[in-house]
Amino acid sequence: MTVESTEDYKDLMGRERPGLEDWEKATKTPKVEQERLLEHILKKNGSSLYLQQFGLNGATDVHTFRELVPVCNHEDILPYIERIVQGDKAPLLTGDPVIELCQSSGTTGGQPKVYPITEEDITLRVRFQEITRSIFNGALPKQERGKTLFFMNLLPAQKTPGGLLQLPASTSVFQREVSKAVLQFTSPKEVILASNFKEATYCHLLCGLLQRDQVIKIRTTFASFFVMCVRYLEECWPEICDDIVSGTLNQTRVQNYSVRAAVLPYLRPDPELADTIRQKCLGKGWKGIVKSLWPKCKVVQAICTGSMAAYMPILNYYTDNLPVLSGIYACSEGFFGVNMDPTCLPEATSYTLIPTVAYFEFVPLADDQQKNNHKDQIVDLTSVKEGHEYEILVTTISGLSRYRIGDVLKVVGFHNATPKFEFVRREGTVLSVDVEKTTERELLLGMTSAAKLLEDHLGLRLEDFTSTGDLSTSPPHYIIYLELKNDESAIQDVPTDILEKCCSTVESSLGDMYRSWRFRNFIGPLEFRIVQEKTFEKMMAVALLRGATAAQFKTPRGLGPQHSHYLEVLTNGLSQCYVSQSRPQSPGF
Fold first, then answer.
1. Which among 78, 323, 359, 480 is placed 20 to 30 Å from 2, CA to CA?
2. How far is CA 109 from the centre of its chain?
3. What is the pLDDT at residue 143?
């Protein structure tokens, strides 16, 4: 049954339109909406133990709030969260009861962070998803209504000592969304809600291929997860074809009873379809395989900004440059922004922060050294300047007050009267072995250029990469781990002259301080360590054992002592090492 033939879907779309109209209205008067929202939040949470210590005394205005309440990070609220985890029912961070706890993936910082969630926050997040879905569906031609192949698997909730459910933000919201919108998807909800990544992905692929002529959109969380799912298809397509021929479900690949029971009704023997899929998968190389297998697919929906930009070349390779829609700006702390122009190119993606979902403030990054000391430098949503970069602060209904998410955004324009932001990077450094500070953006620029060299000269694709600083050598130096792939044959050692060019390319993209210190030999030569195929997949497997979900996992671009579990995997997968033989030009310090 196609999506457009269901009354449930029509009713869902009808409910979404008024919400979108409300958003449009709010973006025309953001200052009024922000002041109104902050007043609402402070009326709810002003009596919390956290806010009481700052002497608000019932004040709900912007000036008093910003004058008395300090900027905070997770360490500042951790004692309150630990009490909530243990079952303390006092109004610690929120006036409303905490109904569940949301956890981050922990893949960047090493350990998951936990945040309280109230009923009102859940309602906001679910509504956010419904309205953004309306925006994205509107980007497709009306005559092209069909189904979505939704690559998703969710981590089951855990019970805290205090009896609350603790689960990733994606699990909490998608559980509710799937119940309402399951008819849009090629997979039954039992597959979308399954916690085993490989079982869920196998079934997503199988169900998606059974309905290949109905798929008009492929959706997932991150570009990296999309690539991961296609790589899994490369491994398991022969068994999928066998299942389609026989009308059965592989017992080894899928063992969960409820998942099997939900998928089996989709199957019937179809040797002709299996032969079509087999011929496409046996073709020379997998360039454009997604478009070939799902010929009516018009768009891929996945976050492709920030660190995810590194996966765009390989995503484009698999999809033959299908449009990619990077839809929302969201994190464990909340759902905050939406791409109001879904048809834009991925590199032009910007997010409009919705004035009614959180109170936003911004720390200008023009003078990084003083941003912690001068609260008067912090500006509100309507005072940011186009072309400038800021660190974002949020105040939410779930008890975060002037909270540092750790993201750096750049103002690139306005939607009505509300700023549009481009995601730039995570705040802080990725690498530092001396006084230099290398950002994720600098590293990404260098590796993007190096990847092009490898592809142009050797036909090798960069599958993934990460880095670390080695302080055990004198002088200390950077190490970049990278995984490469070649469709035509097994990878041999990469010629050293190409690796030297890659090292030079990366170092030329790093900051002035790095290049100056390298030139003066205070920092040692850059080292490339090439790892075997599927090493980064093993890294993700370690993250899953530590509580992350596959859909939530993001490869950390900089590894430190807290990532020893990842460094062990990379060391065990080592295939080739190369140390640069040249030094970058001095920037003139």
1. 323
2. 14
3. 52
